[in-house]
Amino acid sequence: MRFAKFFTILTACLGLITACDQKTELKPTITEMDKSPTELTRAIYSAHLQLDPHLIKATADAAPVRDLLVGLMRFNSAGEVAPAIAKEFFSDDNKNWLFILDDQAKWSNGEAVIADDFVASWQRLADKNTRSPLAHYLIYMGVENAKEIIQGTKGSNELGVKALNSHTLQVQLAQANPNFPKMLAHIALLPTYRGQKPEEYGFISNGDYRIKERSKTTLTLQSQQAGAAFQTVLYQLITTIQNPSRFDIVENPLASYTRNQIMLPRLCTYFYEFNFNDPMLKRKEVRQAIQAMLSASQIANGVGITNYFVLPKTMLENSERPLPKSSAEQILHQIDIDAKSPIQISLTYDDQEPHSTIATRIARKLGQSDLFRVDEQAVSWEELLVKRNAQQFQLIRSGWCADYADPLSFLTMFHSSSPDNKSGYHNEMVNLSLETLQSGTLSKAEREQKILEIVYELQKDIAILPLFQYQRRVTVLPDIQGIEMNNSSEVIYSKDLYRQNKDTQ
Fold first, then answer.
1. CA distances from 127 to 131, 204, 248, 281, 294 (A)
2. What string of DSSP letters covers 222-249?
3. pTM reported for the whole predicted model
4. What is the rounded radius of gyration, in angstroms, for the C-alpha atoms of the chain?
5. Which residues of 290-301 are buried (b: 16+ CB within 10 A; e: fewer)?
């Protein structure tokens, strides 16, 4: 979990696209071939094919790597974390973890996948010389010595991961983390053969596919399973001059291309934070009045899944908009605020779309009442972070993303001692409930009940101003089946897809 920019670290970044060699890109052998029932074509707008899991920066770029490599855990077709190479795992204290690896798992060169592969891969991830943008995920998980290694004060061989034997992996955490197994499907944790950088030796895979052919702009994969619907998967980098409609899937279509698009939920929420140290906003009535003036469905129209709670909409499927019991005017008149002394509110947001549009909608809506005077403060992304960390704001654009589907990932930031709590929110009931949840001692039913109690307490407090849940846009030809529309993992494995027979459509 982390404070999320509009495009997060594993989100398609269309602005980074650079032109490629047009002669290479326009080979008719790829974009003009007849459709095959056993071949899947997937296109990516990107500068180059990145096959090192430690250097992936966008969701779209991760697709071929997910087909080629599999880690301790992986996502199933519904987006849930499920065992993969790790067939069993144990911990008595949620701090020292043991993973029993599948003794049948093989690399594409025929050698066994062993615990040392994970040790070496994670050590390379932590090594500052790797310059991985994903290295801090080891710190986030709480792996022992990860922070010191990344900062360069300890060697990578001191990372809290050890091979007890060929098929037993031990991971030592700096603090207890009952959700640790759920975090292991992350792209950064995929192993490479003996932990080596893939480009240095020719790609050896352990996933559902292996590399058959490769060029600067194309990658042809061959299935490792005889029963797979798609025996061949063809990835191709494309540019803005090409026709994307010829591909079965376009991972990150241009905004101007909407044909055959689908919208998949993401584990990311968009909201505005109140500064609870601000003399005006720390008054609940003021926050209530602001909330009463705004409708998330109107403010977030066209940019995401309307959301009214701190959790993503997909985690509270049956939730409905909580209707205000009183108008903003009625609420504020109770605390002697009128048009002669209106509330001065500043909105701080980053100066790019859709943030500017959303802020303007909020300002206009609040401006319909004589009881509010709104000042819009558009700043750079870097300045937004500085202001948030220094609590130099009243209402500030914010967001939160999780790497696995667990409600607790969206709630811990509301603990008063959380380093991610920049708003100054404090509620002792929420603190105690979060501590109980993090202890990992509750049954499933008790855990779900405790989570709902926190969610509704935060709603009652108006801890934030929720607006929407992010979505991922992908284009998929109608005959491609196997994509679960509620899958929020942002992962689409080729192994889960198939082409629908025209005779059955």
1. 7, 22, 38, 44, 47
2. EES-TT-S-SEEEEEE--TTS-GGGSSE
3. 0.87
4. 24
5. bbbbbbbeebbe
Looking at every residue in the chain, the average pLDDT score rounds to 90
DSSP 8-state code for residue 454: H
Is the distance from CB of 98 to CB of 264 less than 8 angstroms? no
List the structure tokens of 99: 């993973």
Cβ atoms within 10 A of the Cβ of 15, count?
Answer: 7
How far is it, in rounded angstroms, from Cα 45 to Cα 418? Answer: 38
* Contact call for residues 266 and 470 (beta carbons, < 8 A): yes
Query: CA dist 102 to 2, 29, 284, 394, Å?
Result: 32, 39, 54, 53
The average pLDDT across 303-307 equals: 93
Instruction: Judge whether residue 38 has pLDDT over 50.
Output: yes
Residues 6+ apart with CB under 8 A from 325: none
Report the C-alpha gap between 439 and 410 in whole angstroms: 16
The C-alpha atoms of residue 132 and residue 57 are separated, in whole angstroms, by 9
The region that residue 193 occupies, defined by phi over 0 for left and psi between -120 and 50 for alpha, beta otherwise, is beta
